């Protein structure tokens, strides 16, 4: 099935959990994976894999199946992802249980988090629980990267995410506006040692 159609179907089925009507553009995907160099003891964790728009670019930098863990909530998308990316560990799960899912995977230390979750449309309590999960990895030394759409950059939930991260890890490194994305977006990166 065409990736755009599949993404739109997932959005129409559950707009609060998908958060966009189109998958990330190649330009946004490449910015999201910039500088990511996973290995079995420095794995990359992708939250909200979706249709694999970012995974498609990320897979080339993943050296083996022990270097990647993807978490996606939508079962139909997970089925499709497992067919398209058989060499990557992609599980159906809720990002509010990320730390537990990682522990169950028996994979190495999470050194990179690529987050594609729609914080702007998530209920506050869900967003807060996910941030606390991310915090567990950040305390152990990690790079966290997410994106925010330009039109939602000043929404209360977008500001809340940035404030939560800034209060713990300092100011984000923000990319230039990626205009070749629908809608245009910024990437935001925080790194801890």
Describe the 3D structure.
Helices cover 38% and strands 19% of the residues. A seven-stranded mixed beta sheet has the order 3-2-1-4-5-7-6, sandwiched between helices. Residues 2-21 have low confidence and may be disordered. Helix 7 (124-138) packs parallel to helix 8 (156-169). It contains eight helices and seven strands; from the N terminus they run αααβαβαβαβαβαββ. It has a single domain (3-191), classed as Vaccinia Virus protein VP39 (Rossmann fold, 3-Layer(aba) Sandwich). The longest helix has 15 residues, at 124-138. It is of the alpha/beta class and 193 residues long. It is globular and about 40 Å long.
Quick structural overview:
With 193 residues, this protein is an alpha/beta fold.
Count up the domains: 1
Radius of gyration using CA atoms only: 15 Å
- Report the oligomer: single chain
Globally, the shape reads globular
CATH class: Alpha Beta
Structural class: alpha/beta
